[in-house]
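Weekly puzzle thread! Below is a chain. First person to post its structure in C-alpha cell form gets bragging rights.
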Amino acid sequence: MTPASITKNNVNEKKAVLSKDIVEHEFIADFTTENKLAKHAIQVHKFGGSSLATAKCIKRVVEIIRENCQLNDIVVVSANGKNTDGLFAIYSLAEQVIATPAKQTSDQLSQAIAELAQQQEQLITELLNTNNTKQLLHLLSKDIEQLTRWLAGDIVQHHNDILALGEVWSARLLSALLNEQVCPSNSIDARDFLVIDNEQSCAVDSAISAAQLRQRRQFGKLAVITGYISKDSRGKSCTLGRNGSDYSATIIAALVAAGNVTLWTDVDGIYSADPRVVPNARKLHRLPNGVAKELGRLGNPVLHAKTLLPLINPLSEHHTHLHVASSFDAQVVGTEIGKFGQIAKQELSVTYLNDLLLVQSVSFIGEAAAKAKAEFSPICIDDQQGFMVITQAQQKPLSQWLASHDVDITFKPVAIIATVGHKVAGRGDIKARFKRSLKTAKPLNIVGSENNHSVIAILPEPCSIELLNTVHHDMTKDARHIGLVVAGMGNIGERFLELLPAQLNKVYALENLHLVGLLSSKKALINNDGIDVNQARSLFAQDAQSYDGEQLISWLSHHPYDELIVVDITPSEDFSLLYEQLFALGIHVIGANKWAASSSTEHYNNLVNTADSNNSLWLGNTTVGAGLPINYAIDDLRQSGDSISELSGIFSGTLSWLFETYDGSSKFSELLLNALAQGITEPDPREDLSGRDVQRKLLILARKSGFELDLADIDCQNLVPEALQSLSTRDFLARADELDDYFATALSDANDKGACIRYVARFQHNETTGTNSKVKTKISAKVSLEVLPQSDAFANLTPCDNIFQINSHWYQDNPLIIRGPGAGRDVTAGGLHSDLVKICQQLAHKKNQVKIKGIN
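Winning reply:
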C-alpha cells in the first residue's frame, strides 16, 4: 500500500505460481535477471526449520509458495526441523571418539548418523513420487557416505561442510516437491555464490556474490537456496552463525535488490516482549529498521542480530521491507520492518538478556573506549565511568586483549532489561517511567544506547519473569494503536472530521487513535502513517484516488494496527454489504447507515454472529435519533435485567417539523416545498413521506430490544398517494398540491376533537396465558399518521425533535421518555463521536490472546 492512497497496483499485485500449465504462458515472461526489471519486484521468502520440520509442515510451505510466489522470486530454507542440532551432536560424538576411542561412543555415533538419515528418508518417501524418491534417496546415501568419511578423517577441516548438510537436504527436497506439484524449480547451494571475508564479521563480497548468483539462477525456474552457509574468499565453507538463515535471506535480498523479504517462522510477528513469558505482549505490526536492529541486538527471540544489516543502507535509494509471518497461520498479518512515519515510531517494547558480565577498566574511559567498543561491540558502554557489558563468551578474548595493555580489570555477573523504541534514550518521559518501573530491582546503572533506540538497565541479579512483566506493563500500557477509517465525506462526515482534532486532544480514550483512511463512494485516501486531522478534507481532495470494494477489503485485511474502526456515515446499501467481511476480519464498525441493522432477519443475525465470533464491536446509536441515547438506554435496560414491552414515538425529524408546523394557515404542499428549500426534507420529500425511514428505525429499535422481526412485519402507512409514487422527483414536486386535500381534511377532523395529527411509530409485545397454561406472544408494529390529544407526550414537540417512549417491566405506569433533536449535522456527528469514545474505552481493556507454535 502506498502511503498516499489505494491504487489498483496495490491490491493482489503478486499472483500465485499455481501450476506448470500457467507457468508456461504467464510467469516465464515475467522472469528476468537483475539487470533488467521484472514485471514485479523480486520477493525473498525464507522458511525456518520449524516451518519445514515434518511432511505436514512442508506441504503447508508448498501452499504458501503457491499462493505468494512468482518465478522470479527466491526461496531460502533452513535445515528441516532439528537437523542442524543433530549434525552438531554427531560432530561432538566424533570428537569424543577421536579423543578417547570407545566402542560405546562409536556405537552412539553410528546410531546418531542412522537416525538422522532415517528422518530424512522418511520425509523424502512421504512427500515425493517414485522417481524423485529414488533419486533423492540415492543422493542422500552418497551424502551419508561422505559424512562418514569426513568424521573418520580431519573433522576440524570439514566442520562447516558437516553442518551444511541439513540445509542442502532441505533445499533439495523442497525444490523436488515444487517441481512435482507447483512449478519448475532448482535448488542452489549458497556456497556456490555467496562469498564472505570470515565467520567473525561475515562481510559479504557483494559484487562477486551477486554475479555468481545471477549465473546460478535458471531462467523459468523458482530458485530454492540454502540458508546459513557460505564460503570465504579461499573457497572454504563457512556458516553465518546459529539462526543465520534469516541473515542469508536478507543478504540475498540485498544482492538482487528485492522489494520484500518474508521470514516465515513459527510465530506471527515481533511482539512487545517475549510472548512465551509475557502473556500481555502485543504484536508490533510495524517497526522502523533501527528499532528492529536494536531489538535483535538486545535479545529478541525472533530477530537474528545481523538480519537487518544488509537491508539498511543509508546511501541507497532502494529500500527493502522485511516481514515476519507465521507459516502455521499464513493468513494472519505479521510484522513489517522498514521505513515508516511517526505512528510506527511510537511503538515500545521490552527485552532482556541474562548471563552477562559487567567489565570495569580504565581502558574503557575516554578515547581508549572507542578501541574496545570497535573490537567487542558490547551490549552497552559508559566511557565516563569506564565500564561495559559483554556476553560471557567474550570474557576470555577481552581478558587477553586487555592483558596487552597491562591494566586492572574486574568482572561482575549481571543481566540487562531494556526499553526499546525510536529515539527513546532522548525522551525524558520514557526514561523516567522506565526508572520508576525498576524501583524494586535496584539497577546498578541505567544507560542509553549509542543509537538512542534503547534505554538499558544493568541488573545485579538475573531478570525475573515477574520483573519483565512489571516493566512491560508500565512501559507499554498506553501503546495500543487504533486506526480510524471514515466512510462518507458528505455533510455529516465533514462535521465529524471538523470535531475530530478537538476530541483527540481532550478525550483520554482517543489518545492512541489515528485517522488512517477517508472514503467517499468513489475515492479513497489511505495512509498507514496517519492523515493529519487538521487537513483531512484538503488532503482528501488533493490525494484521494479511485477504488473498488475488493481493493478496500484487501487493504483492510492487512492494516498495521492493533485495532481498526470503520465509521460508516454513508447512506449506501452497497457499503453496508461489506460489514460481514469487516467483522470477519475483526474490524469494528460504527454505523449511521441504517441498511445493515434493518436488513433481513437472516442477514442481520448473520452479521451479529459474525461480529461476536470475531470479537468485533458494532455500535449504531446514530441510526435512530441522531445523537439521542436511545440505543444506549435500551442496551442498559436489557443488560440490567429489564424487559421491554412497548416502544413508541416520533422518529423522524422531518415529519416532526412538518406536523408540528402545519396548522392549516397555509397549504401542506407549500409547507413541504418550504421545508425542502430549507434542507429539512430529503431532496425527494417522498423519502420522508413514505414512512420507510421510520419503519426501518422502529425495526432497529425492536431488534435492539431483543425481538426478532422483519421489515414486512411492520405496517407502514405511505403518506404519498399511489398516483404520485412512481413519478420523477420533478413531476412529483410539480403536483405536490394533490397532497393538500388529504392533510387539510385530517387536520380539520383532528381540530374538531381538540386533537392534532402526528406520524407515530408503535411496537407492542404482549404475553397472555391461555386456558392450557401456555404463554401466547403477540407482537404488533406499525408506523402511521395518528390523531392524538393535545395532552399526549407526542403532541407538543419543538419542530424537528424526536421523542422515544419505552414501556418495560420497570417502566410500566410511568414510561421512560427520551426527547431532543433527532436530526442535524452537529448532533449526528456528536452521536458518532460518542460511539467512537465508547468503542475506544472498550478496546482499552481488550486482551488479545497470543497464539504461538514456539520460538526457535
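Puzzle host: Confirmed. Bonus trivia for everyone else. The first helix runs from residue 20 to 27.
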